[in-house]
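pipeline: protein-struct stage 2 | run 1193 | Thiol:disulfide interchange protein DsbD N-terminal domain-containing protein
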Amino acid sequence: MLRTLASLLVALTTLAAPAHAGGALDNLVRVEVLDGGPTARGTHMAALRLTLSDGWKTYWRAPGDAGIPPSFDWHGSRNLRGIDITWPAPEVFSANGLRTIGYKHQLVLPVEVTPASDGQPVRLRGRIELGLCSDVCIPGVLDFDQELDPQARRSPAIAAALAQRPFSAAEAGVRAATCRLSPVKGGLRVEARITMPSAGGEEIAVIESGAPGIWAAETRTHRQGDTLIAASDLMSETGAAFALDRSGIRITVLGARHSVDIRGCDAG
């Protein structure tokens, strides 16, 4: 836990002032809205495509030791009831003893839009606050604004990004996933035991609490035969005591062959 806190301090001390689209940020990253057209479910597929300059990367929703998690503001949108984001499997980066998780070159982030009123135009307008890192790290703000075309055709780029999502537990052959909770100073320790075939190479698990305001230290992962064992310490941002619902815990296993997204775990 101390190592994670130190890592976060390192990240914060390397941050420059926030950069905005239309200024210095334009040389590092560009954002555009891709339109994937309506779905048979009555929703509309779209995506945010981030194109990064060489040598720069941005972060996954659980960014690792010193990354900056992205946040999204959709308040400027019109006829929007809900957004469902599908994250493509990220890469793991190691530098200066720190492990971060994210994307380089390009990120196509599919978003499935549920309109508030069927048959009415949908406008996607908002902003992304994200971290960008190379030799230094900077926070950035990107604005986007596009009305979706109800006649748009399926987007190959969105389809490719959806195909890069982690496997579900069933698709990956996960036979069991249990979590043992135990108190530690300032929080809870989660030890997950996952019975599953190897995802290939060095497997790195990431544990997310599923609860707002609860962050996780770097997960320690090792394998015993057909069981992957992953442990992480969770702490409240406020330092207050908290309860944890096992059904909300999310475990992502990143392997050389594929990644696996496990939702919830049983008592163990």
